Amino acid sequence: MQEPEAGRGVPWLHIGTVVGAVAAIGSLIFTGVATYYGAVVAQQQLEQSQEDSESKERNHATRVTYWEGTSFWADSKSRSVHLVNRSPDPVSHVQLYIQARWFDKELLLGFRELNLPPCKEMVYKATSLTAVLRNGENEVPLAGLKEWNAAFLTFADSAGEDWVRGVRFLEKGGYERILKALDGAAITGVVTSSAAPQVNDVEPCEAAS
Fold this sequence. Notes:
single chain, alpha+beta, 8-stranded mixed β-sheet, 4-stranded antiparallel β-sheet, 2 helices, 12 strands, about 35% strand, elongated
């Protein structure tokens, strides 16, 4: 049998080096892939968390609303304004904006109720409401105006987010959104109440999910 010539043996050291290098490269690739997918998952989780948070905020905001008792065309003295919070969380900085017509003037009046308690409806009779024009020279009973309507509601939810609700929209924002909707109309006065509102419990009243 012929002996293998010197120097022609299997280059184990070289093979070991190559295998080690390949393993290192594979490890780096695996680590890179794992890091990439980990970052993707983390981003997706963050986006989902943000979506869940925004959905919860909006669900809360949808439970805050307003409406008018009786028809727009009914006797103004029989009309009323209702502010409603169907959430177990309070809302603050509540302001209802009322559009009205007085002689030949178009009015935008701010009616402020600082807080709206959880699970409550606050009812104001039109006969207790007075429009005080900005110049302070005129005080007009709201019930004496033939044309007026509750146009917008602004409020801050329990997380401090500002919202504006109209007849056909609900958006984050504040007075700027109202100005845009009214083509830059300015507040021409305020509405005051001579009597405390009637406060009713409302049901259902559940936390936003």
